[in-house]
User: Fold this.
Amino acid sequence: MVSDALICAKAAQLREDFGISPDGPIGDIRALIQKQGYLYTETRLPDGCSGESKINANGNYCITYNNTLSFGENYLRFTLAHELGHFALHYDYLQGENSHLSRVEFNSKSEIEREADRFAIHFLAPAESFIKEMQHRDYSRETISHLSNFFGISIHATIRHFMDYTDLACSLIVCNENFEIEYEHRSEKMNATYKMPFLNGKLLGSTYAYECIKNSKEVDNSELMLSDWYENFPHKIGATESVIRLAYNGKFLAMVTPNYSDLNMYLEESGY
Ligand SMILES: [Zn+2]
Assistant:
């Protein structure tokens, strides 16, 4: 396993090697990789695949994007940066295998896929400039959409990056069309506040995510109680929930954040 610190350092190194500034958004990534001598192609790849990286017989680095996908420019940018991550982190593997197909899935079970995803985030949105841009912003759809557009990274990656650096209590719950929770990710503060096991299994009917999946829609910053998500939460704490429907894989992202005055009162009462 490659550590996050090393992934971060490799991403910074590649920006330097490419002659781009250590912070701030990256412009046209297609043009950038071609300028660096990578052979870039857009063509049809097998279903469920987003991109491919390989080293050809002449030793050239080749990156392919699956042009049958219609998930938008930010998804393409993320995929290309992910493939760059494979060259930076998994060179030996690519040399041995000579070809790697990346899956559409974000947060895949495959270790090298997750590492390449982490690389892509650090490459496209370096921590320092990301933190500067997210300062004084709440955990909401507007914030995520702003950061996603500013850095040109996918919504899912933006939320994960935000949660890595925020001092807010907040949670991301990834659900699918079968009303199942695929995984929950908590910010550090949320983790410290709510120490129960991570959400899993079936979605509760009291959540907006349930309603959104039922009606195939999204919902913007709606109010509910934290216990609508966390049944065992002992106090009545208000919360905000936003739901974003991803363009791929039938996934819904629920963003849940407690009301801060309610939460602080709870923390005081419980002796934090
Ligand atoms: Zn991959």
In short: Residues 82, 86, 100, 102, 113, 116 surround zinc ion (CB under 6 Å). Residues 4-125 form one domain. The first strand starts at residue 39 and ends at 43.
